[in-house]
Amino acid sequence: MTLKPISITFDQTYSNKIRMIQEAISDPTTHRMIVEGLVDTGYANALKTLHSERRISDSDLKNSIGQLPEHLRAFLDS
Fold first, then answer.
1. Model's pTM, two decimal places?
2. Domain locations in the chain?
3. Which of 17, 37, 59, 67 holds its CA 20 to 30 A away from the CA of 24?
4. What is the C-alpha to C-alpha distance for residues 22 and 46, in angstroms, rounded to an integer?
5. CA distance 74 to 31
6. Are 78 and 50 within 8 A, CB to CB?
7. pLDDT at 78
8. What is the pLDDT averaged over residues 41-55?
9. CA 78/CA 76 separation, integer angstroms
10. Average model confidence (pLDDT) across the chain
11. Contact predicate 73/41, CB 8 Å
12. How many angstroms separate the CA atoms of 6 and 27, rounded?
């Protein structure tokens, strides 16, 4: 797999939202960690939706779950 760098620039509104998220997290965190967490959450939601619509198989779901952090794996079990 070839990694392709992605650069994202946020306007002031989104920068403020990210800072607010940072303030709500008790552990020190970076903008990158916040964005990665949001992508993981979106990925988990996409898997759940695609599986419930039968657009991915049980096997595909099972294989994809391994790419999620533990707390989001439980989300897919609900």
1. 0.81
2. 51-78
3. 67
4. 24
5. 25
6. no
7. 64
8. 95
9. 5
10. 91
11. no
12. 25
